[in-house]
Amino acid sequence: MARGDIPQDSYHLVGVSFFILGLGTLLPWNFFITAIPYFQGRLAGANSTIVTLSTNHTGPADTFNFNNWVTLLSQLPLLLFTLLNSFLYQCIPETVRILGSLLVILLLFALTAALVKVDMTPGPFFSITMASVWFINSFCAVLQGSLFGQLGTMPSTYSTLFLSGQGLAGIFAALAMLMSMASGVDAQTSALGYFITPCVGIFVSIVCYLSLPHMELARYYLARKPSLAQGQELETKAELLRSDEKNGIPNSPQKAALTLELDPEKEPEQEPEETQKPGKPSVFIVFRKIWLTALCLVLVFTVTLSVFPAITAMVTSSTSPGKWSQFFNPICCFLLFNIMDCLGRSLTSYFMWPDQDSRLLPLLVCLRVLFIPLFMLCHVPQRSRLPTLFPQDAYFITFMMVFAVSNGYLVSLTMCLAPRQVLPHEREVAGALMTFFLALGLSCGASLSFLFKALL
């Protein structure tokens, strides 16, 4: 079909649909971690809610280590399904994976919302919530991989819109929390409204996915999708990875696991015969070329997930109880992190420093380890070992801004530099390796959060 015969995206409905689908894939993770005060209050033995917890100046005791468990059980499924994706993609049809995942996520979030009205003892409530977190994030991992596979057949513009939707998920969750707190309704209704919000978002995502086959442009591109076979996941990733680098990489730990941008104009220097006879890429050879960049990526996310949100969500305002202390954590922890992280990722659209041959990148990545003691020495009321050296709110806000910007920038930088260190035909393997190491870093950080929480 000639270029002029390609259908038009009437009213940009296909683009809007993929944007909403991107938003829906990361709503669960962000809504769970933003509502940490609610869960801590329920686990403390009171049927507390978002509003009442926010007015508690000292914050509820995290006796179940909820911060740590919710992070770990959110990231382990990502690592697991990164390894199982090739098998799942061959055995389960794409429509079943996408629509089935969305329906299960919707039902489990509806259960979470319903539990707001159910008076339960902390033990069973914790068990049900952790099971929901595990299964929701497992299906989210399948959903993301399947949607990225679909996007491999679409123009890169739609990949960008999908990623932009994912980039707003964290900000959307933080704003929903703030609106819930400021609504003026009773505490239980406020919490119920908060958890109904992602249910509505997932439902709209289902409607958008079901509407795609009825749009001419979507039918045109999706009909060209090749049959799923061994290695198809790498092919769809490679197609997605060629998105315009100027668009940057959106924020959030999870979504970066399936995005890796390439610069087709800049190739690494290799031997002429190696360029002329590409052959089948070797995982070991590709790993030898990108191992340092991959290690940097692991360390970036290990540091980030070891304190966010396990430690940062425990920090409270040092001012007297009032409106500011009530809104302090949702604004200064979650909303500020997502905004600054998004800003950091967008900086690679304008410059990328240090470059792939510089030894400054490992140094900058290692320096982020300093954020671990800095956050641990902020105003965390529930501590028994370490002193509080940075009690003022300004310290925490400053640390969080630099922490989030550096996380976003270094993640985006490492993901952009890795494919430049290999040959064009090796980029698919490089993308798969970086995806694995990113998921590994997330899981390592979530595991280490237990140790740092114990040291407090």
Describe this structure in words.
Helix 1 runs antiparallel to helix 6, helix 6 (122-151) packs across helix 11 and helix 13 (283-307) packs parallel to helix 18 (427-455). The protein is an all-alpha fold. Helices cover 66% and strands 0% of the residues. The chain has one domain: MFS general substrate transporter like domains (Growth Hormone, Chain: A, Up-down Bundle). The chain has helices spanning 13-34, 36-43, 50-54, 66-91, 94-114, 122-151, 156-167, 169-182, 187-211, 216-222, 232-241, 272-276, 283-307, 323-346, 360-367, 371-376, 393-417, 427-455.
Brief synopsis:
It catalyses: adenine(out) = adenine(in); thymine(out) = thymine(in); adenosine(in) = adenosine(out); inosine(in) = inosine(out). The protein has 456 residues and is mainly alpha-helical.
List keywords for this structure.
single chain, 456 residues, mainly alpha, Growth Hormone, Chain: A, 66% helix, globular
Return the CATH class.
Answer: Mainly Alpha
In helices, the fraction of residues equals 55-70%
- Please identify the structural class as seen in this structure: mainly alpha
CATH topology: Growth Hormone, Chain: A
For the record, what is the CATH homologous superfamily label? MFS general substrate transporter like domains
Rg, Cα atoms, Å: 22 Å
> How far apart lie the N and C ends?
64 Å
> How many separate domains make up the residues?
1
Can you lay out the helices and strands and say which pair or pack?
Blueprint: H1 13-34, H2 36-43, H3 50-54, H4 66-91, H5 94-114, H6 122-151, H7 156-167, H8 169-182, H9 187-211, H10 216-222, H11 232-241, H12 272-276, H13 283-307, H14 323-346, H15 360-367, H16 371-376, H17 393-417, H18 427-455
